[in-house]
Structure prediction request, 682 residues.
Amino acid sequence: MSATTTEPERGAPRRRALVGRAVFAGPGLLYVTLFMTLPLLIIASYTVLTRGRFGGVETEFTFDNFAKALQPIYLSVLGNSLLIASITTALALLLGYPTAYAIARLPRQWRTVALVLVVLPFWSNFLIRTYAWIILLNSEGPLNTALVNLGIVGAPLDLLYNRGAVVVGLLYAYLPLMILPVYASIERLDPELQEAARNLGAGKVRTFLDVTLPLTLPGTLIGAIFVFVPSMGNFVVPELLGGGKTEMVGNLIRDQFLVARNWPFGAVLALSVVAFLVILFAIQAAIGRRINGGGARA
Amino acid sequence: MRRRSPLVLAAVATSALILTACGSSDSGTTESSAAAESAAPAESAAPAESDAAAGGSADLSGQTLTISNWAGYYPEDLATQVEASLGTPVTIANHATNEEIMAKLTAGGDSGFDVAFVSGQYAQALNDAGLLEPIDATQIPNLSNLYPEATQLAYDPGNTFSVPYTWGTTGICYRSDLVDEPTSWMDILEPSDENKGKVTQMTTERWLALPALKALGYSINTTDDGQLAEAKDLLVASKADLLAYDDTTFYSRLVSGEANEVVAWDGWCNYGTAENPDIKFVIPKEGSDLWADTMVILKSSQNKEAAHAFINFILDPANHAWVAENILYKVPNQAAMDAVGADLAATYANMGYSPSDLLKQETVVDLGADSVKYTDLATEVTSS
Prediction:
């Protein structure tokens, strides 16, 4: 307050700027607060309550829900989800990075075509595309029929309803989310930096490892998060391509709310995943800051 | 859960999953007679008959009905038919599962529904919660069409708060051209080499447990922790030879040849038989369940006379026979089943099961607070 009285000529514009910022940021903040924070608070409050008979909660305090989540069977579901999401992310990186690199090196008019092709699957419904995999991979499906008829395998392979099928489905669904941010960071890369490295005697591999890769790492990390997070929470792919046998944490949470009607336990699981992802984001942000921060200080 | 007409079959597996995928409990379409209302204003001839039959013959045009039923489990033009007959405007909402409609009905306050279709054990639970209006038999003269056996089912002897709509049992649906007739639930739980990876089970809690409980010689309504633990171990071990868990498309897996034997509700096995006559249904020797889907009137309803008249309308032999002929589930209505004729049972053997055949099976009842044991068992089996 004293600032405004002693320095009115500076305080007023500052206040005006503040009002301006509030006008711009307000609707978004309000939206996020209302529809993100409030539900999260409600979920948090459910974690210490008792399940109602038909869903809902009863106001009887308990910490049993947390104890339940720590049972080995549920920890193994969480571990299973982490494993599947990690494999999917690693494969997406191995497939996505070269793809993005190749697209960035295309002539400009072809880049757009290639990017459209990358997002093309998003034009049709996710569920339909997942069902298509069932038709493709099932024991009587075209792939198995072709393999058997060509004499490559004696009997149809079990391609569906296992962990591999879940990874295939998730990779298919989320690969574009890896390619796009990686492409953006490669495309933004100043080609003169690479030229400079080459001129200074670095080979192609050295240039890639010491110049290109570090500079595109933030984009790559974003891509990894974009693939990892939805893979971890997905429950449609495990249900359809995993045949309901490979339970992931997304299925477990969904079932607690919609099938088992154990909202408090579902809330504990949901909150655990949120907490886990927050930690993951913090790590990603820290790495990104170190890379960018180092550059800025230099 | 188990009910959808073959017509919407393709769309259903998809839409059910879309619904779950969205995490939404909103139940898709509603069908209203509003269009019919303006198209056919109060034609007096049609209602007269059934009003006389309804006994009360009260003027129901001042009441409105909101009903929730499983998608595809009733004639598409039911709302129009009911309005033409009773003069009551009708809105029909769809639900996909018992759990979904239970969530709506138990959320507190007036759910807005007058009549709901739920399975017997869920009707029992609703009644225990004090949410149901007692059935006034004098307002439903067509109750006399029911098989006597159907009025004494364990979840509600005497139909005091529910009226059965369909009933049936659970068994094994199989390809008779590919495998021998299964005789035991163990054929699903420990399949022979030719059937390994070619069987499916259901995941809905009570029906997930059923094959194991019956195979072990226990009641499907058991609340004994030791027995449930044994059943759980058997079910967990059976996952190794399981193709998939499937509550919705098991019969189409038989048609495609992906599966040889699946755990199935009788009526839904018939959808497979309709496409391939070699698909047959059998009740394993250890026995099975008797389930019923029922109609209940909500205590909160402001339109109770119309609600009773609606149930009376459904129990009309012609209306109820439509359900048997088109949904391919048995209806507990003697007059309706007599009208259906024998050729349906010739094609779909389980349509010929008599009430006494069904009563040899164990009726599913609500287990009160112990129901949780089954939800936990289902979670633990699918998670392990």
In short: Chain B has a mean pLDDT of 86. The radius of gyration of chain B is 21 Å.
